[in-house]
Amino acid sequence: MEEKRREEWMAILRQSRLCRNLEEKELLNLMEQEGTVRTYSRGERIFQETDRPDSVYMLLNGSVIIAKETFSGKRILLAQLEDPGALFGEVYAFMEKASYDMYVEALTQVSVLIMSSRIFTDREENSLSRKLRENLLEVFAGKAYNMNRKLRILGSGSLRERIVRFLVECQDSEGQIHMNLSREEMADYLNITRPSLSRELGKMQEEGILELDRRQILVKDQEKMELYL
User: Fold this and answer.
1) Which of 64, 117, 146, 214 is deepest in the core (most CB within 10 A)?
2) What range(s) does the Cyclic nucleotide-binding domain occupy (predicted)?
């Protein structure tokens, strides 16, 4: 591994929730002994639904989607990750499952740190394993919160109510919507078809609630939009 590249990866580990309070030698061990860095091209899958879970993955750069396919082939988008240090596949380290029930695909070229599940489940008095498990509790709590957020959105009644709930969840303190999903990815997240999403967004624009500008969605009438909450 090139020295400059390794230092970039190490900086990401130092800032990640998983590696909080780890000593430098423990970070090096995690990077070079217990893990390996691999690069994937756009469209390549990091793991398939039929693969055997034996690793925990940390995104170092780029963007990936977590999804699954129905029997008919419809894709259901579960999440999109693009923050360096984001974890995926970690829950399987503590489950006795023969295969994944989702897949992870690179949206861009990505680099991923692949860590052996063993380092997380080692029951011996191992300082690194103990620290990693403690930090994972915080990671699990954050993901449980996000899952509850998605359930609130999908549990909304009508299509418009679901869209409005999603947009409100994406708003910051100044009312600006921050969303890095394409229309297709947004439709997958909401578990609706893209044409249905486009039609409803178009109606909301005609009614003066929203203004659509490619990937950007601007709220023109907050009060009117919140009538659907």
Assistant:
1) 64
2) 18-120
The pLDDT tens digits of the residues spanning 54-83 come to: 999 999 999 999 998 887 888 888 888 999
25 vs 17: CA distance, rounded Å = 17
Between 205 and 94, the higher pLDDT residue: 205
Question: What pLDDT shows up at residue 201?
Answer: 94
Ordered by start, the domain boundaries in the chain are: 1-136, 156-225
Residues 116-165: tens digit of each pLDDT: 888 888 766 678 888 898 898 888 888 888 778 788 888 888 999 999 99
Burial class (CB in 10 A: 0-12, 13-18, 19+), 177: middle
The sheet with strand 55-61 has its strands ordered as 35-40, 110-116, 55-61, 87-88
* Residue 223 CB-density burial (10 A; 0-12 exposed, 13-18 middle, 19+ buried): exposed
- Residue 76's DSSP bridge partners are 68
Name the class of domain 1-136: mainly beta
CB atoms closer than 10 angstroms to residue 89: 23
Rg (CA), the chain: 20
pLDDT in tens, 167-208: 998 888 777 787 777 888 888 888 889 999 999 999 999 999
**Which residue, 94, 103, 99, is CA-closest to 51?**
99
Question: Could you tell me if 204 and 210 are in contact, meaning their C-beta atoms sit under 8 angstroms apart?
Answer: yes
Query: What is the number of other CB atoms lying within 10 angstroms of the CB of residue 218?
Result: 12
CA distance 80 to 140: 16
